Amino acid sequence: MRLTNTIYKLSLIFLFACVCSISQAQERGDVLIKNGTVLTITNGTLENTDVLIRDGKISKIGKGLKAASGTREIDAAGKYVMPGIIDAHSHIALSSINEATSPVTAEVWTGDALDPLDISIYRALAGGVTISHALHGSANAIGGQSETIKHRYGTVDMDGLRMEGAPRTIKFALGENPTRVHGERSGIVPKTRMGVEAVFRSSFSEAKQYMEKWEVYNSDKGKKGFKGSAPEYNLRLEALADILKGNIIVHCHSYRADEIYMLMQVFKDFGIKKLVFQHVNEGFKVAPELAEFGAMASVFADWWDYKFEVYYSTAYNAAILTKNGVVTSINSDSGELIRHLYHEAAKTQKYGDLSDDEALKLITINPAKQLGIEKRVGSLEEGKDGDVAIFSAHPLSIYTVPLYTIVDGVVKFDKENDPADMRIYPDPEETIDVTLHDREDEDRCMDMGYSNYLLTDK
Amino acid sequence: MKQMKNIILTLAGVFCVLLSYGQNAKATTGTFALTNATIVTVTSDTIKNGTLIISDGKITDLGTVSAPAGANVIDCKGLFIFPGMIESGARLGLVEVGSDPRTRDYNEVGDIIPQMKALTAVNPNSVLIPVTRVSGVTTSLAVPTGGLFSGTAALINLHGYTPDQMYAGFEGVVLNFPITGKRGRWDRRSDEEIKKEAEKALEKLNEVWEKAEAYSKIDSTILAGKASSKLDYYPEMETLAPVVRGEKTLLVEVNAANDIKAAIEWVKDKNLKVIFTGMSEGWRLAEELAEANIPVITGPVLDIPNRDYDKYDRSYTNAGMMHQAGVKVAIRTNDAENVRNLPYNAGFAATYGLGKEEALKAITITPAQLFGVDDQLGSLEKGKSATLFITDGDPFEPKTQVKYVFINGWNIPMESRQTKLYDEFLDRSPGLKK
């Protein structure tokens, strides 16, 4: 009797969970934003203009728009309306970041470690950020595949975060991180930047052989009298082969100009084209080469000097890259910085005089291009996703305040109606307050190296 | 012909200047007249279309005055003059590359080492210093960290070739008030362990303090000539004695609400010259702080809230909430290489409740007052040090460019390694082809 009761309860919970996840996966809203200054990014600035979102998509941009009765209206008079901000480098909403056990771990995927309960998602929304790239860490020369997520905070289902249809991406890493983790600590290649290159060349050569074996098998297996067996299936090599086939965008952690140049040479030799450099602090030194290759760059506005390989950096990096024709974005790599990417983008006006449009592109259409999602997001255009951020003043001004953030037409952040506690799941076992988040602590962790290493990526 | 010769000589001179320095161009000094400027004095009304005269390192006059004969005239039409920004707590000068322990000089071994002097370890030639000062931050408190009494912090101006040339007239002893909470999410200690350790740390603090009080009494007696004996060499106590007597400032680093409460209790009746620093949860005890008349240095403002259940913008609103309750608030970045972001930290505080005017004070006159150097720094007044910066707009707006920086009357070259890299690589030569 008792057992049936339990089963009954369990099935109810299961059913409830199913209903929840279905309804969340389908959550697409309608909003009419009235009379705002609309920063379209790709089509200039439109004064006193309305943006109508229907069923999660931007259905119309124009003046005097009307929506079906009952549609939520936001009065944006005197306010600034821009596409939801996109962060091409983040580790929020992840329960683990670094599979630091081998120089090559192409088989793992951060999409298996999504944490929809992470409060950082809400904090990012409160900074106008609607999409982030949940990247694998930088311990391995070839790290894990990564997931592009939409900040649909409120879902308890990790599938609810995924941006359906976003291209596959993978994390690579050059320089101090992979050489420290593997060479210095474990005594295996790579210990130097020579070794890092060797890891790429051997991995891709192996993957090429693997691909060829399968091609031969696939073409021969139908033939009469075929006797061979299928090559051994290898998930790691499958992923590497997909990079060779152009099915995965490589996002490579990098700092120094020489190693950035090296990876472009390797990719040329293997015919790989989809390449975005991350951090790329010395990208400015090889900006013409980056532009020629068609490699993109996702940089910090002004972070430098936290380690030796970023000692020779400059905050003018984004401006130099942009002016040399490299598609550039500003990223956060931080649960703190992600909350004010609009401010980070504004710093490129101090460091290199970028125009408003150029600066705004760094956090909208450019990161969208780097994630291969520019046809769906990154600008305000009819037919694109209803991802919008509304600011009290121009988003590049220090005096601006994000007021609303909308994902798929659903208002996910509303400053006027923001309850202080936005946790989805408060831990009932937590009795002592977790406080004191300061830099000193982070630095100390960095000393310990390995354990902290797994938690940060810089 | 003569003219031609002059041009050639001038060009050669310019060329020599360009080639003749190693790391940075030399600063120049003399008499300067900054004319046609909007002078934001901070302590009195803003002067429109005014002139500010610099001579012998001081502001010798300002307002509707004329330039003295022979002065270097800098036309500041359309520009704004502000007192130099003061960073109230950072590691600038004490570290070169964050991850490299060989370049870190802010955390000496030991728990009770107030005698360790930050000023000693300041590297006047750090690459980080020009990067910082060209943004208008002219003065910075170099703070040692770690342990219970970490050392003695020192206020430095960001120009000079020896620590003494840089010293800006304030030193204070740093106390890390014992923490009773978890040190972040990765703290794996059990609740019991945390409680025990916190109690032990507080006991230790009280023990040290009693000793310091005793030492101070004996020391005072000897100083007053009432006893002839000499004290044994005891550098910790020697440093703490003037703190105990309320002559030297104690900088108490404390952040969580419970700890702030305990710290307020601890300083009560001790008659100290005290400043609370960090104070990320100061807003929770704003009234109590105001009542206890304890001034605060808080920051970074650009930080995540202390607790998962805090409102997302807590760190932005913190300074404003304390100010509104009547607490005197200065702002710091607590950074090293990016102290240049001080105006943006102040700007966020301004936007989220502190207001523009107060936010500017929080990085100029307020820290100058807290450090007892307001006779020299923190505002533009006749007789004060000519430590200031000149912009083409609002100093908090990222769009604004800093045009000139003066530190103690030295006209600082507006360059750093970062600007030089920009000049070299914006339009690289050779470009793509050899």
From TrEMBL, chain A:
Key words of the record: Signal
Pfam families in alphabetical order: Amidohydro_1 (PF01979)
Coiled coil feature spans: none
Sequence ranges assigned to domain Amidohydrolase-related in this UniProt record: 80-398
PANTHER family associated with the record: ALPHA-D-RIBOSE 1-METHYLPHOSPHONATE 5-TRIPHOSPHATE DIPHOSPHATASE
UniProt name for this protein: Amidohydrolase family protein
GO molecular function, one term: hydrolase activity, acting on carbon-nitrogen (but not peptide) bonds
Signal peptide: 1-25
From TrEMBL, chain B:
Signal as UniProt keyword: yes
SUPFAM superfamilies: Composite domain of metallo-dependent hydrolases, Metallo-dependent hydrolases
Signal peptide (UniProt feature, chain positions): 1-25
Superkingdom field: Bacteria
InterPro entries: Amidohydro-rel, Metal-dep_hydrolase_composite, Metal_Hydrolase, Metallo-dep_Hydrolase
GO terms, molecular function: hydrolase activity, acting on carbon-nitrogen (but not peptide) bonds
Domain Amidohydrolase-related intervals: 316-409
Keyword Signal: yes
UniProtKB keywords: Coiled coil, Signal
Residue ranges that the Swiss-Prot or TrEMBL entry lists as coiled coil: 188-215
Pfam families, per the entry: Amidohydro_1
Protein name: Amidohydrolase family protein
Organism whose genome encodes this protein: Fulvivirga sediminis
Species classification: Bacteria, Pseudomonadati, Bacteroidota, Cytophagia, Cytophagales
